[in-house]
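Annex B. Sample input.
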Amino acid sequence: MAVKALLVDDEKNNLENLKFLLENDCTGIDVVGMVDTGAAARTWLQQNKADVVFLDISMPGETGFEMLERIPNQDFRVIFVTAHNEFAMQAIKASAVDYLLKPVNITELQHAVEKLKSSINKQEFLKQNQQLIQQLVQNFKPGQTPVKIALPQLGSISFLDVNEIVSLQADSNYTIIHKQDMQKNVITKTLKDFEDILDGNQFVRVHKSHIVNLKYVKEYSTADGGIVKMNDGNVWSISRRQLDLFLQKMKTYNVLFFK
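Annex B, continued. Sample output.
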């Protein structure tokens, strides 16, 4: 049975283009509705059934996030289709929800559809999707960086308060999160992924392998070219090219810190 899709975008060309790509370049998906506002989408969903909503974020009158906030019981998956927006993308990545950037890349769309088809009838994935969307709505406040990040794991999702993070350490394509309680999380995301998510005024990349939370910096030393000691006992090297940025951020974050 084909996956039923509702497309929501305020630009007609975007709707028509996405419909064409889904119907001609993807298999097992049926476009059952197209609307141009969040309000129209909510009305449509009250009267019809969709397995997935391809949702634009920036729409007049009601953003995609606001639309979702006004639907208490979401029994559908969501894939955001959006132009790049710093705050929106930061919230989306922090919440680990599925998204496509405009203009839509056919290969990425096909990958998203296949991922959707493999999980569409599994209740645990629907429940996870609902949790991620709820976290996304909380995370997205214009001008505010995410306060929690979603860490999907096999069969569950944990939500981590960013203030619990002391530092992050690269390990190939994984990242080790060092937490305030001395525990660690190993996540299948790169350090660059976290650099894009976290507040750059609080979290600073001091080395190609390390990001530190300035809140937990205990000591800076010029030994060995520059090292930073964290409250949890970890000691990380500061690369020469990152040293000036680190010192500048420390001055901004803590007025008592002097070079």
